[in-house]
Amino acid sequence: MFLNLGAARDDSARRPAAGDLLAVGEGYTVINQDLTVIGDLTGDGHIEVKGTVKGTINSRTVEILKSGTVEGAVIAESAIIRGHVIGPVRANTVTAATTARIVGSVFHNVLTIEPGAILDGRRPWRPHIDRNLDTE
Amino acid sequence: MFSQSGKGSEAPTQPVRDTRVTPRSNGETSVISADLKVIGDLVSGGDIQIKGLVEGDVKSRTVTIGEGAQVKGSVSADTVHIAGAINGQVEAPTITIAKTAKVNGDIIHQTLSIEAGAQMEGHCRRLETRKAVDTASLSSLKPAANPAPAEAGKKAVSGS
How many separate domains does chain B show? Predict the structure, then answer.
């Protein structure tokens, strides 16, 4: 049990801090609670989803908040899931928060699962995930 | 003695000015940032700010198409501000077109303002009734908003 402590700390150091994303300002997309997007979102910045997206999200960083729902793939360099995802998640760094519910495969290099998160699907590890190459 | 009075009044001279643009949303407005491309429709009961590219229809309460933004599709809302480019029909009770705007499509409005310098190609039609957008259906947030209330009303009249 206590041996894991070191590993957990190391893991969090590799994880990008959420604060870093906020400094971007420009390139910061917000899909609010009352917004439904029926289609695909493609960008190079940060996408914050509080509403509903029915389609693929591809961005550098993606955060699905507690109220957020995605029916489709989430492809990113770093993805933080706090809401509901029905579809595959493909990101180098994936964080499934306590409120997360992912129904689909989670392709990852670094995966963090917080206690309480529901992951319903496979969790294949990959040496590197390139979000521009939409394979698998 | 009196020279000290100047020191005392120093504090409240600077007004607090918040120059920092908070990237976090205020819980009201959705933002499509400049680097983002949306291929599909946007449906919202709130406000949408578009700075990027949208290829699809936009339905919302307030839509702001920022400078440099591009919308290829129709826009219907209560209020529409256009400072960017739009290729498609715009339908709203209140429409504001800024000088940086490029509008290619018809405009259906009740109140329209066009700033000098705006590029406009299309017809402008004024709507008499205040039923430009069925906002009631937007607030219920059903993507496939069916015009059921209007239909039902029509049927009731024809049936009697």
Answer: 1
Q: Which of A66, A16, A63, A8 is nearest to A41 (CA)?
A: A63
Nearest CA in chain B to A23: B23
The pLDDT tens digits for A53-74 are 999 999 999 999 999 999 999 9
B127: DSSP letter:
-
- Domain presence at residue B117: yes
Long-range contacts of A81-87, Cβ-Cβ distance < 8 Å, separation of 24 or more? A81/A117, A83/A49
Flag if A35 and B24 touch (Cβ within 8 Å).
Answer: no
Contacts with B16 (C-beta within 8 Å, 6 or more apart), sequence order: none
Answer yes or no: are the C-beta atoms of B72 and B54 closer than 8 Å. yes
Given a cut of 90, whether residue A8 has pLDDT beyond it is no
Q: Which domain holds residue B94?
A: 27-129
Does residue B145 lie in a domain region? no
d(CA B135, CA B148): 13
- Residue A8 half-sphere exposure toward CB, CA atoms < 13 A: 7
pLDDT tens sequence across A82-100: 999 999 999 999 999 999 9
Q: How far is B156 from A76, CA to CA, in rounded Å? A: 52
A32 CB neighbours in chain B (<8 A) are 25, 27-30, 44, 46
* Residues in chain B, overall count: 160
Q: Does residue B147 lie within any of the structural domains?
A: no
Tell me which DSSP letter residue B132 carries: S
Tokens for A7, please give them.
Answer: 């590993």
Residue in B24, B33, B141 nearest the CB of A34: B141
Question: Do A84 and A66 meet the contact criterion of CB atoms below 8 Å apart?
Answer: no
Decide if B42 is inside a domain.
Answer: yes
Cβ distance B134 to B45 under 8 Å? no
What is the ipTM for the molecules in this complex? 0.77
- Look at residue B159 and tell me whether its pLDDT is greater than 50: no
